[in-house]
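Help wanted!
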Amino acid sequence: MLRLPRLRYLKPASAAAAAAAVAEVGPRAVLVAGGTDLLPKLKRRQIEADTLIGLAHLSELRGVRGDARSGFELGALVTLTEAAEHPALVEGHPGYAEAAGLVSSPALRNAGTVGGNLCVDTRCNYYDMTYEWRRSIGFCMKKDGDVCLVAPGSPRCWAVSSTDTAPVAIALGATVVLVGPDGERELPAAELYRDDGIQYLAKPAHEVITALRLPPADGLASAYVKLRRRGSIDFPIAGAGVALRLVDGRLERVRIVMSGVGSHPVEAPAAGELLAGQEPTPEAIAAAAELAARPAKPLDNADLHHAWRKRMVRVVVEQALQRAVERARARRP
Amino acid sequence: MSTDGELEVVGRPLPRVDAVARVTGTARYADDLQLPRMLHARILRSPHPHARILSVDTAAARRIPGVKAVLTGMDLPIRYGIMPVSQDERALEFEKVRFVGDPVAAVAAVDEETAAAALDAIRVSYEPLQPVMSIEEALRDPVDEPIHDPALTRQRGNVHRLVSYEFGDVEAGFAAADHVREDLFFYQGNTHLPMEQHSALATYEDGRLTLWSSTQVVHYVHRALAKVLELPMHRIRVIGAAHGGGFGGKTDPFSHEIVVAKLAMVTGRPVRCTLTREEVFYAHRGRHPVLIWMRTGVTREGRITAMHVRTALDGGAYGSYGPATVFYTGTLQTVTYAIPAYKFEGVRLFTNKAPCGPKRGHGTPQGRFAIELHLEKIARELGLDPVELRRRNYVRPFTRAVNWLRVTSCGLEECTEKVLQASGYRGRPRRPGHGMGFAASAYMSGAGTPIYWNDMPHSEVQLKLDRTGVTAYCGAMDIGQGSDTVLATVVAEELGLRPADVRLVTADTDATPVDLGSYSSRVTFMAGNAALEAARRMRRLLVEAVAEATGVQGDLDEIEVREGRVGEVSFEQACQLATTRFGALSTSGSYRPPRIAGPFKGSGVGPSPAYSYTACVVDLDADARTGLIRVNKVWIAHDVGRAINPLAVKGQVEGSVYMALGEALMEEQVYRKGRHKWPSMLEYKSPTVLEMPEIETFLVETVDPEGPYGAKEAGQGPLLPVIPAINAAVFDALGIWIDETPITPEKVLRALDARARGQEARYGPRRFPDVDYGAPIRVDPPDPHDLRVGEELERAFAAAGR
Amino acid sequence: MLNELQRPVHREVLLLRVNGEEHQVLVPVHATLLEVLREQLGLTGTKHGCELGECGTCTVLVDGRPQLSCLLLPVQLEGHEITTVEGLGSPAHLHPLQQAFLELGAVQCGYCTPGMLLAAKALLDRNPKPGRRQIEEALAGNLCRCTGYATIVDAVELAARRMGA
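Answered by r_m:
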């Protein structure tokens, strides 16, 4: 049986105390909420930690507050199941709720959290392997080594951003609330990420995400389309989160963010701008999807052939745009 | 059974006899077993695909507190293997390693954590050798050295086995053809992925070794332990624990079974080893990747005049069942279609990958995939209906094929008619992206000859009857397919009981007579026949005792044994009367297939006392933009001879369809940079419930003359036609051929792209490598109507000087 | 890995509520619920197929919701109700789901069965009349290699009908 390394588990009294504990213990401390991403990585010795800073007991990080009119605040410990099934959220930001409902499998959504999914480690099928497998092939730069096995000439790590919920959150203009030793700050969700397979989060390790704030619905229609091999369990191999407004038959404020195509959630601003002011015709949507997909560069480090994944990016973007437009139309009085 | 032969429990959809244990979590699987002072073993495995072992230093590992024993290859130097001709594995290797995952050392410690740390402290020094990772590479001269010593294989380079046969006059057959077609196919390797990871627990007490294992075949583990540990068989007891799924993957004796046995002997304490999921991928013995070239001549009407098949198998690092597998890629074609002249050449190659072996269908899905698509293409070329072309060539019941395989009952026609009618295949609606495909197949009900050539029975069953009731003893292992239920049902039928009334002791080499195990779809047919014989003998004794005690005169066959009664008395009373008359009773029954095999070397692979038949139609949608395929429905009809338990048979059919869908659409055991690309449940894609289509199952009962109550196999055959039917349906939907498995969306788009460029609308292999198969063994075909078997056949051979 | 043995083992005394029974256990913090159930409490009905959250085999219920015991830390579970297959029904009193699995042949090797049963129970407790698609969605994280799933979905439907009757 694969087992965890020896650990201690701290139960700080608050998010601020958790942040302080991380700062104090240093790099061998790691925050844990649902544990669905962290525990397998600990078992495979991809993350070496000896101290887990537990968050699960912090009831102030639970609960969905607000509504479609005022915007939502989702505590970081809200489970993905709760987010996916929350009636007001499903109504107000269906794209976010559907993204939460498409994460992995039902059991993992019951444990996995809103905050945790934003922080899901970047993935690579040279990296998400056991210690023995990685030692056999030679360790990569993301853990214990100094080369990238998928692009050996590359100076950087190409592990893939695999969060399902971040693309829609970014497209909606969501913000995250972070608590650190020095207090609280609010950061646009887009700014939580860096284009780097290793240091993929732009926040310091000692900051704790306490909440995700989604804006008032205010005419925003959203959708998330996820491509994966099976209808469950699998991470996205290409995904698109979009949010847009349809005003008098014309698109406004279109944001398109893709998952599974780079080391961070990749936004396609030019494609969004292309649609602004246009009627959502199939041709316009196809052109925007084409443009959005252009910067995506899948490599041979995730499921299925990377050339095929590249071709599919525009398909998922197109499908997400179409679905969001349908929702916008359905919503109009 | 009533005196007029009416069946009471056979044919009824009763729950499995062990169902309560399995739904309440009380069934004890090997990893659930816990004994006092038990130690935990872990195995150190090679990080190199191909390397010489220069040294193994275990000193640091031995010093770790809690480590009780460390083994290296020198402790277990004797080679073993499942077949007499593949004794090429060691429990722990000390000379060289042949794939990433090859066992090198083992530790027993107080807990798994300590054992794992000890593995990390073992220093192994390797000299890496050039790995061989493909069929093409294996056919070239080795860069460094062959994977196995040619002195052992008696072949050139990395060739493991070569077979070459010509049955009848193939050249004449092709000359008589109006049309000849050649095709090339590739069937990717894939693995069993049982939900239960392999596990074994050993004790050594009073000079006797006991092993509980998640094996499919206690007898073969028994043999391997005796050989490697140099213990007499009577000092070894192998017990099959409740089984968490095999599909062929737990049929070989495995390193961890031998290792825990040795560790128990060394430490004097119980030792358990449960493989991690990654290690299960290394234990493997799954589907061989096979390249297949096929050439067939047909008349204008679509009748086959000759066929020539070449196969090349990527065998992985060890022999395993490979010498049989290579035959199976070609041998069974002749029991589905009447082929008047047939040439078959096959080669199995060693590569530096986890060893391949028997997976559900053992070597036949690859050949089946090829022949069904090949015939489909021929039919379309000739402008014939692909189903009609097949029907024109279907074998007839009670005939003997060109390669001497004897066909008895055969429900191909009936199966075909069922699925055609139910699916509406002929009048199917035409809409873009929608397709339907048909395929047919055959599979064996157990091998006609044993792995170890001898004349002993393949299955033996003993019944014990005393004042407390009846117990059946059999070495067969229930791996989830329901073999215990079949045994209980057969005994219950003969003794007028319900299956739940029959106590069972199975798969325990101390207590049960030998059965050759759960593989090759043999248990229902062989153990069923043995149980039938034992039960009929017991019934006779019971009836005698009851007749004598109750003063019944006349024909004992007239005494009813049914519904818990023997004649005028209850079964309980009958047991008491029988015990009073005879003492505790025991009867035994056994089964040995009749001699069927033809008069030539190598004729032992392929003959079976009966073949099951299957036909299926698949309905799917294929998206030309994404290449994604959604299977909507599968209609499948299976000639099972007689369904002893229709619930269990239907379960086997549906499970086969499931496994076939995985193989056809997503499962692949592939390698990158010398390593298994993704030895995990996440990345090795096993379909979830959401991928499953609706399945409509038809059981066809042809009542085989030699099967128990007419039964034939159901566990493997139904997998076979599903895969080519899917490819045929993809052609129907999109007009492209995907001539390999799995059909990934990438391949679909590539074939569509090729068509758009004006090239052949196909994705698949482009060339078959040059292989020197040697001169074929030429075999004269039998008279197709000569059905003689057994001594009669042997006398005929002797008379003909064969 | 060797130096991992040199790290201290942190242990905690926990009160775990499993199948309605309270168990006071001394557990290493790094032992998952799966390990504690099987190795300390003798509840070996909970099986395991990967220990990485990829197969669903080790599914248990936490406060009525399916979760994977291979990814749960007991230290997080005090005050929560844990249900394993042993808490579902006994051989003498089978839960309607167990009865339906048995009758319809939804069990072959039985190794995925405990997890399937618990995932199905959680569904029926929240949604007594699920549609077929809802059943499939609820079982989508539990792999089975034997049955092809059809009989399992049938069995959940049958149990739902009987429980609603």
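OP: Thanks! One thing I noticed: Residues 289 and 315 of chain A are 7 Å apart (CA to CA).
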